[in-house]
Amino acid sequence: MTTTKGLEGIVATTSSISSIIDGILTYRGIDIDELAEKATFEEVAYLLWYGKLPNQSELDQLLSDLSANSAIPTAVIDQMRLYPKDTNSMAALRTAVSSLSLYDLSANDMSRDANVLKAIKLQAQIPTVIAAFARIREGKEVISPKSGVSIAENFLYMLTGDKPDKVAIEALDKALVLHADHELNASTFAARVTVATLSDIYSGVTSAIGALKGPLHGGANEAVMAMLDEIGSLDNVESYVNKKLENKEKLMGFGHRVYKNGDPRAKHLEKMSRALGEITGNMKWYDMSIKIEEIVTGKKGLRPNVDFYSASCYTYLKIPRDLFTPIFAISRASGWTAHILEQYDNNRLIRPRAEYTGPVNQSYVPIDQRS
Ligand code: CMC
């Protein structure tokens, strides 16, 4: 038996949703660079689910379905009021998404049509859950979703109660496009493993949220901002980063299992971070990030990943730090559900093996004879 720690380089399934070939990321064959400049998140979600870009009437139908499904049951809001106020936001999201299934009469309907509708419903409801949780913990009224607006606009509106400005909507929308899918990343794999037992789509997305929460995956964007806060100013960057490197500690937002010459999404977020810094008249987070990148790339050859510049972008958008990873979940819900649908369409139980390294030829020792 040969063991590959972390399944590095192992091809565990076939998929026609997204690809990473020679460092180029595509969704359904379209380069992420092109989608980042031209597509809306809703178009991308349609692309991931249906395998093609929507025409106008298909997009209108999707927008209307998303709007029609974006409210969440009062019971789930009431449960969220009972969560401890300092609950981790990803833990809150994981629990609330699991709860949503209890109020969906079609939760266990495994027909394809029902699962497609549940994918749309989850995509529509996840932003509502996150915004509601963020307001409840601050003792504020929950704001119901608006119809006829994009997911990015609705989320910012439900979070603050104010109409978000165009710059913020466009920036968030682009971030959602960039995070939507990423081949067999850890959370998507978790989702596929779960539903490959023929469990339901809510179980798959709940598993995925749990996997995304960790700092080696989606939790890295929040960890990057914690690092920027800790560093505090441009003057402290050099000594902080050098110390981390000397101590062989990881710098959050750098490195990637698949990309060894840079994450193609990072440059879009770097550009966005610079633009938002200029617009807000506060270059501090951008300047610090650029300097960190210079040192880490120069000394260690590690390049920033998608999470690195997301942190400063979301901070410029005045989003609380602990909602960064939940925003990743808003976007990746499209990829998770597309992969879940694909898994159901061509399912086989995912059940690898482990190489046993424990003791052999042991016997049962009665309790009174154990040391
Ligand atoms: N800072 C410092 N050293 C690093 C880093 C880093 N961020 N990433 C990798 N290395 C070093 C690591 O210490 C090891 O060195 P050595 O061979 O001397 O022991 C070498 O590079 C290989 O690292 P690894 O952890 O075995 O690589 P991996 O392919 O298992 O890990 C990773 C990929 C993303 C988990 C890792 O790069 C990491 O922990 N990065 C920081 C967390 C992060 O930013 N995660 C977000 C990933 S991208 C988006 C997403 O999925 O959410």
Automatic annotation (TrEMBL):
GO terms for cellular component: cytosol. CDD domains: BSuCS-II_like. The active site is at 256, 307. One of its GO terms (molecular function) is citrate synthase activity. PROSITE patterns: CITRATE_SYNTHASE (PS00480). It comes from the Bacteria. It catalyses: oxaloacetate + acetyl-CoA + H2O = citrate + CoA + H(+). One of its GO terms (biological process) is tricarboxylic acid cycle. Pathway: Carbohydrate metabolism; tricarboxylic acid cycle; isocitrate from oxaloacetate: step 1/2. InterPro entries: 2-MeCitrate/Citrate_synth_II, Citrate_synth-like_lrg_a-sub, Citrate_synth-like_sm_a-sub, Citrate_synthase, Citrate_synthase_AS, Citrate_synthase_bac-typ, Citrate_synthase_sf. Keywords: Acyltransferase, Transferase, Tricarboxylic acid cycle. Belongs to the citrate synthase family. This is Citrate synthase. It comes from Paenibacillus psychroresistens.
